[in-house]
Specification:
This protein has seven helices and no strands. With about 170 residues, it is an all-alpha fold.
Length: about 170
């Protein structure tokens, strides 16, 4: 497979991952493009020790962390995109869902960066423990423990904002 195919297949996932971290669409676009420029330049270095997607996300992660180290940005406001549903929703449900999305992302933003990363990679992007350990350069044990602690902290943040399992739209 070539880097052009990888771009077509993984760009959207990389962009959404970076957007969740930087919370600015223009910056996420720039960092996604920078990620794929590195992928293209280093394509011959991919040895097949992991999935291509895992390798690309590792590059996306390091590119984004380098950006944070260089710029030390103040938290950006995340423009929330309404996810389309399989069934039609009432306007009340849509308003409630948008509120829940804001609460979800606000609670996620309150967590320390390592917790944000492990939740985004494992629970939102769907990477396995092993893949996440490769992307973050952590041991699998650290990924598991961090995820457990991150989810507990995330639940606390959601509850601070008044979100309970009974109030969530499923």
């Amino acid at each position: 497979m070539s880097s052009e195919v990888w771009f077509d297949e993984y760009y959207d996932a990389v962009y959404s991952y970076i957007l969740m971290l930087v919370k600015d669409s223009h910056t996420a676009e720039d960092l996604s493009q920078e990620t794929f420029m590195k992928v293209i330049r280093n394509e011959q270095q991919f040895k097949g020790d992991s999935l291509v997607k895992t390798w690309i996300f590792r590059i996306a992660y390091t590119t984004t962390m380098s950006y944070f180290r260089k710029k030390n940005p103040i938290t950006y406001f995340l423009d929330l995109h309404t996810h389309s549903s399989k069934h039609e929703q009432s306007s009340e449900d849509i308003v409630l869902l948008n509120l829940q999305q804001r609460q979800f992302y606000e609670a996620l933003r309150q967590l320390k960066p390592s917790y944000q990363n492990v939740i985004i990679l494992r629970k939102i992007q769907g990477f396995s423990t092993k893949e996440t350990s490769v992307i973050l350069n952590w041991s699998e044990g650290k990924v598991k423990m961090s995820l457990s602690r991150a989810l507990a902290a995330f639940k606390q943040e959601l509850e601070k904002g008044g979100v309970t399992s009974e109030t969530l739209i499923r």
